[in-house]
Amino acid sequence: MANESVWFLYMVRCANGHLYTGVTTDVARRFKEHQSNSAKSAKFLRGKGPLSLAYSETVGTRSEALRREIVLKKWPRVKKLALIEG
C-alpha cells in the first residue's frame, strides 16, 4: 500500500457561523469545490457563503480520516472552536 494517499480532515465555516467537517486528499481542491456551489459541492454548504477554511489536519489513511471525522462531528461546538483556535 505504498501508493495510498494521505488524507486530511478539514472544517469550513459558513457565513452564518455553522461549521462543516469533511475529509479529503486535497484540502485546497475540495474547498474550491465547496465555494463553487457546483454538483461537487456539499449540499449543506450551498448558498451559505462566503465560506472560509477554518481548520485542517493531516490524518493519514482514509479509514483514519473517517474515524476522526466521526469523533469531531460528535464534539460540542465549543470544543470544535477551541480546536480551530489552537
Could you explain the architecture of this structure?
The chain is built from three helices and three strands, in the order E-E-H-E-H-H. It has 86 residues and is of the alpha+beta class. It has one domain (7-85): GIY-YIG endonuclease (3-Layer(aba) Sandwich). 10% of the residues are buried. The N and C termini lie far apart (33 Å). Strand 1 (7-13) and strand 2 form a beta hairpin. It has helices spanning 27-36, 62-74, 77-85; strands spanning 7-13, 19-24, 52-60. A three-stranded antiparallel sheet has the order 2-1-3, with helices on both faces.
Quick description:
This protein is of the alpha+beta class.
What is the topological layout?
Layout lengths: L6 E7 L5 E6 L2 H10 L15 E9 L1 H13 L2 H9 L1
Antiparallel strand pairs: 1-2, 1-3
Distance between the termini: 33 Å
Report mean pLDDT, rounded to a whole number: 93
- Tally of helical segments: 3
Main-sheet strand order equals 2-1-3
- Helical residue percent? 25-40%
Order of helices and strands: EEHEHH
The top-level CATH class is: Alpha Beta
Overall number of strands: 3
Percent of sequence in beta strands: 25-35%
> Can you summarize the main beta sheet?
3 strands, antiparallel
CATH superfamily: GIY-YIG endonuclease
- What structural class do you assign from the helix and strand content? alpha+beta
Notable features of this structure?
GIY-YIG endonuclease; 3 helices; alpha+beta; 86 residues; 3 strands; three-stranded antiparallel β-sheet; single chain
